[in-house]
Write the structure tokens for this entry.
Amino acid sequence: MRAAGVRRSSVFFAAVIAAGLICLAVRPSAQNRGQGSRVPGGSVSGPDSAPPPPPPSGAVRVGGEIRPPTKTQDVRPVYPPIAQAARVQGVVILETTIGPDGTVRDARVLRSIPMLDQAAVDAVKQWQFAPTMLNGAPVPVMMTVTVNFTLDDPEVPARPCAEEASMKSPAPTTTQRFIQFVNASATPRKVYWLDAAGERKLYQTVASGATYRQDTFAGHVWVVTDERDVCTAVYLATTGGQATLR
């Protein structure tokens, strides 16, 4: 009887030990818990295989790790004739939003020069940039830009129309000049050249608000008239520069 009881106890403990081994065999280790377990058709990801964060929902501001994008296309602003006539110059500061494709989506004036603001916005909206990449994807960015307006040309003084009768252009020389005619008046202006005989030769009609550049020679005479050919000013090309038409 005693021998039979010992055998039954041995079988019981063997079964318990076997069950325990089975439990240990299927329990994941601490290392496996950190790495995730394989499942049919894929895997359960753990901390080491976390996906990259999604791209930001809005534009990110340039600064820190976000470097200013590289400009790939530059467009210079058109100087408004009214600003040229008033000798207005300076720097317009804009805040721009650049899309993922590098185009300027929006431009807002931060520092204003009223006569120059729109020209600055129109130019900047034509700029192109290389896309800004974040976590491997292109993202929109916000960046501050400046547009500088500088008047480099001196003003060519207007001479009295009474001098036209005694003036004529000399023979062309090797000394070239130019006159930038800026029509600041409300009506068109005609630009005439006086030849060697003092006769008018029509070169251009400049619309109100328009600009016209005329290449010429030193000492040549230019007469500006209204639409009825009545003289408004005479210009002598001693030095190059800008002629503001009134």
The radius of gyration is 40 Å. The domain at 60-149 is CATH 3.30.2420.10 (TolA/TonB C-terminal domain). The first helix runs from residue 2 to 26.
